[in-house]
């Protein structure tokens, strides 16, 4: 008599397969590390005053990220005070913003340690803090850039890109709340200013970032330029922009206003990235020093693990099926 195929291993495979697809599709791209900026000076805190103020800052910022795209606050008093802020990309939901921001304090401590200031940029959000008296830099200061493949856009690519970036300049400087996206002939562009930046200053910052991208990235088919107070990105999609987004804007709220950052050591998130630094910034770290990003790596690790488990399950099914066929042949 012929025995039936075992049901449990096959059911296990059917159960695992959609999970694999879901994990791969839902990899947390917004929490991928873009760059870090760590102050060169360590935080001297024998009485724990700064640590208490910093913990209060982180708690407030995480709490506010569930209902705002930008928030800035100060904790402590006098020379023992610390100012911190976060900002999420304008097209994120409140939940996405919260999930992004809530990762930053742990990553800051892991990547920078206890320093007088730190700035961490993920793909979907960033956070910074600084102690009172920390030196300031211009809002137009270049913090980081990365450029894609060159000379791959075909004839007329740079003209199309410049037209798309020109539309970005016009859009973000027209009362759109400091966040704007648009596309032009297969080129998608995005720009955002820090939430407490005025409309005119925002337009000037984005204009500077656009000019830097044209100079720094040349004929690259993609680029990201992060200045102290704004950032822009552009990407070329020769086969059409996937799920193109409408031009959009996002207003932001703030609790105070002042510039921030400086005297950092910055480094990029991957060896292929091209980071730039100027003024008081330098890059003493190798780019692999930021490779400990837990966001995307966790999703990839889980996907690989589940994929391996499904592969083993499928192999078991094949072996049992072959064994069943052999037994069926013996029965005859």
From TrEMBL:
A single BP term in Gene Ontology: plasmodesmata-mediated intercellular transport
Position of the signal peptide: 1-26
Protein family per UniProt: Belongs to the cysteine-rich repeat secretory protein family. Plasmodesmata-located proteins (PDLD) subfamily.
PANTHER family linked to this entry: ANTIFUNGAL PROTEIN GINKBILOBIN-2-LIKE, PLASMODESMATA-LOCATED PROTEIN 2
Protein keywords: Cell junction, Cell membrane, Disulfide bond, Host-virus interaction, Membrane, Repeat, Signal, Transmembrane, Transmembrane helix, Transport
Top-level division of the source organism's lineage: Eukaryota
Lineage: Eukaryota, Viridiplantae, Streptophyta, Embryophyta, Tracheophyta
One term under GO cellular component: plasmodesma
PROSITE patterns: GNK2
Name of the protein described by the UniProt record: Gnk2-homologous domain-containing protein
Compositional bias ranges of the Low complexity kind: 247-292
Domain Gnk2-homologous: 31-134, 139-239
Stretch list, region Disordered: 245-295
InterPro entries: Cell2Cell_Antifungal, GNK2, GNK2_sf
Membrane topology recorded in Swiss-Prot or TrEMBL: Single-pass type I membrane protein
Transmembrane portions of the chain: 302-322
Compartment(s): Cell junction, Plasmodesma; Cell membrane
Pfam families: Stress-antifung (PF01657)
Main location (coarse class): other
């Amino acid at each position: 008599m012929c025995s039936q195929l075992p049901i449990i291993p096959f059911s296990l495979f059917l159960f695992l397969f959609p999970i694999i697809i879901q994990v791969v599709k839902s990899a947390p791209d917004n929490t991928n590390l873009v760059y870090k900026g760590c102050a060169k000076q360590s935080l001297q805190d024998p009485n724990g005053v700064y640590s208490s103020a910093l913990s209060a800052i982180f708690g407030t910022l995480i709490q506010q990220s569930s209902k705002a795209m930008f928030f800035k606050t100060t904790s402590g008093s006098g020379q023992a005070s610390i100012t911190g802020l976060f900002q999420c990309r304008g097209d994120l939901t409140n939940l996405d913003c919260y999930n992004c921001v809530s990762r930053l304090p742990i990553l800051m401590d892991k990547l920078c340690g206890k320093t007088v200031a730190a700035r961490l940029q993920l793909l979907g959000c960033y956070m910074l803090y600084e102690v009172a008296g920390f030196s300031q830099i211009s809002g137009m200061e270049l913090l980081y850039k990365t450029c894609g493949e060159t000379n791959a856009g075909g004839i007329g690519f740079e003209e199309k890109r410049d037209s798309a970036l020109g539309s970005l300049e016009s859009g973000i400087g027209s009362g759109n709340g400091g966040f704007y996206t648009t596309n032009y002939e297969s080129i998608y562009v995005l720009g955002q200013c820090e939430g407490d930046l005025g409309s005119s200053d925002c337009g000037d910052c984005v204009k500077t970032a656009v000019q830097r991208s044209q100079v720094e990235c040349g004929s690259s088919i993609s680029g990201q330029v992060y200045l102290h107070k704004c950032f822009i990105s552009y990407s070329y999609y020769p086969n059409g922009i996937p799920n193109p987004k409408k031009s959009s804007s996002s207003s932001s709220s703030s609790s105070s206003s002042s510039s921030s950052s400086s005297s950092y050591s910055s480094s990029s998130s991957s060896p292929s990235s091209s980071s730039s630094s100027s003024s008081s910034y330098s890059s003493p770290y190798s780019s692999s020093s930021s490779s400990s990003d837990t966001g995307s790596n966790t999703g990839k690790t889980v996907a690989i693990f589940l994929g391996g488990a499904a592969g083993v399950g499928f192999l078991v099914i094949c072996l049992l099926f072959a064994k069943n066929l052999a037994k069926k042949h013996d029965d005859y």
